[in-house]
Amino acid sequence: MARRLVVIGGDAAGMSAAAQARRTSSPDELEIVVLERTSRTSWAACGLPYLVGGLVTNPDSLIARTPDQHRANGLDVRLRHEATFIDVEACTVTGRRLDSGHVFTLPYDELLIGTGASGLTPPWPGIDAEGVLQLRTIDDAVQVEQLLAAGARRAVVVGAGYIGLEVAEGLLARGLAVTVIERADAPMGAVLDADMAGGIADAMRAAGIDLRLGTAVTGFGTTDRRVNSVDTAAGAVPADLVVIGLGVRPNTDLARAAAIGIGPSGGIAVNDRMQTDTPHVWAAGDCVESQHRLTGQPVVIALGTHANKQGRVAGTNITGGAATFGGVLGTAITRFQGVEIARTGLTEREAAAAGLDAIGVSTEASTRAQYFPGAQPMTVKLVVERGSGRLLGAQIVGGEGAGKRIDVLATALWNRMTVAEVAAMDLAYAPPFSPVWDPVLLAAGKAANAL
Amino acid sequence: MARRLVVIGGDAAGMSAAAQARRTSSPDELEIVVLERTSRTSWAACGLPYLVGGLVTNPDSLIARTPDQHRANGLDVRLRHEATFIDVEACTVTGRRLDSGHVFTLPYDELLIGTGASGLTPPWPGIDAEGVLQLRTIDDAVQVEQLLAAGARRAVVVGAGYIGLEVAEGLLARGLAVTVIERADAPMGAVLDADMAGGIADAMRAAGIDLRLGTAVTGFGTTDRRVNSVDTAAGAVPADLVVIGLGVRPNTDLARAAAIGIGPSGGIAVNDRMQTDTPHVWAAGDCVESQHRLTGQPVVIALGTHANKQGRVAGTNITGGAATFGGVLGTAITRFQGVEIARTGLTEREAAAAGLDAIGVSTEASTRAQYFPGAQPMTVKLVVERGSGRLLGAQIVGGEGAGKRIDVLATALWNRMTVAEVAAMDLAYAPPFSPVWDPVLLAAGKAANAL
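Output (structure tokens, whole complex):
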């Protein structure tokens, strides 16, 4: 009789694990059951702001693989099945069919937890009002669409991080009056050092956003349970539609209730094979904590790339293979209209918090040869360990073509290079692509000189 | 009394060396004399095709620094001064002032040779006809402009390498009928494996270029010393204007005459401090050979990036500092209209020639999330050492955003990573920039599986 793998959660991590396990074991050896609470699988949450903004027009295009496609690949995908309890002694998952209310109990030989993360929602009065939402699922995007159709004109976005910027851009593109409220004194405050954020605030304001920095939300005004304002210490802002973009926290309730170990950063603790501390229980994706390659510390970073890799690693190991997850560097990228924003490794602030003796060196450069049409200014900030000269982190803000250069610096970090080594590298040059000294080389050279 | 550094050649390598030597030594310590044959310094030869094509409109914008700017920085720049002989025993350079014919002899304490490279011009009958030219200097571009003004309508480009593609694109943009004649069976034959070149040939033809592959030029037809056709084994092609783009060879005549050592690849032999085998004589830029980091073999690669780095290394060492040039990977990039073309390391053919047991694995990918507007197809070919799994080289052909990803692979090569290690890296992801699995990760994963 086949053994059974039960996967809780049918998005990136869960479906990557299931698909990889299917590739490496036959249905005779392993039955694979996926329990998914919603009616969709493998959706690209990162694409939602662009669905709202109208750059992406077909919600279905955000579905990497439908439940039926997964089924055709030999996976038993059960939609609107919510897992409610894991019994790690009996090796069973108990759950509920959301449509019928029917309760089920499913024995497992191996279990993968891929429960993802949820948006942070502070206990502000009125946060559950109609018109206040997050952008986590396709249904959320549909809800925005309905509010727009119903005449919403004034949008408030709470939080000026990745999601905040992307949603604000999208709502602006749809013709709404957009206010962004951010508690910190700069946008992208959790992501960039403050000295790198000025250009982003300028770009947001130039685009017509009413950006209110250093402003704390205190609650929401409502009429008949519908939001009509966002209240702040500095007064109320009228709103027909509010999107909360304050980051996420791992969904660990199921794991906690089963006494599966949670790590110090708040995610499910796993080793580099994606095993939890509990026999036959694996976990992957936004619900786990990962090791930061530079600090060695556990961190929670919710990102589809890690979820996919971790799922694949788990799927390989569950079926008797050998794979490890290499850890994270905190690489990330976004854009606000023409301004590309990217980072990897540690910011100057994070390096100091990690007890590292580091300096930050910023360099102004050009995305292309300066005489070439379309050349855009860009700033590269490198964070470097004093003494060793080792690169610790990088931040880029600049025009088209700037952002993805972060990958070169992420690769340098992955290999523990010094900035002098980075400056010597043989990177590609032609006028449409780069100045003779690529911005990465220029920045590394300047940092090496500053040491 | 100050010692004297004489620099032969006022382009990238020479001026980088001179400028660096000036930064690190005072005029009291070191006099720096630059002998430059033309009337310009520090011109960006790589920009010339775009000047011809009209994307760059001001020739002066190609001048990174004028002679007067260099002079203001304390360099004694002597234009239209041609060095004709180096006496390494007496430590003197003899030369000629091209305007007056006046001969001079200049003693040196240290000498830097930065004589660059010249375009290859086979001894074809008629190659010195009016209307047959290369594109090496701003004056060449001016000459093209004059031919266009005089009514040239039919252009033939000989060679489908970097310069050939770039010039063909430029002449096409100016409304000329363009034929490209290439001896090999594929464009970019010296640069890419043949299986990567198909899309480029298609793009050239789709753009309206008459691309003649596998066709050998035999000479040129002329009327009154003006070119009127390019003769090939397969017939004559009418031409008002011919641009030869067959690559370059190092200018080593001066060095050879002075018995300064020439390396096996035909460039001046230097160590990693940019010293020749002759005391007090240094060399840098297109005239030298460099060490390939993967094969350890000397190679001649004419490229502004290397020239700048080597010049800076030489300038540092000449003034008593310590710097080394890290070698080359053969990283390069260009584009033909919307098709970006890049490479680094060894092609499959080059790996075989170097005696390495390698496989090539090609992967189709997308520059952005597939659902995101502007997503373009791209192909990544990785060359991998069998057994070790070590990355040996990479080639990319694809739409906007594809090419510069080569830098990630160049950085991986620089660090001698395996493809499995590359596949694990933390690269930046957001829908406008990348699919969840960046094409680099996807290609590395596929190559790792293929081993």
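Chain B has three domains: 3-45+63-116+249-318, 132-246, 341-450.
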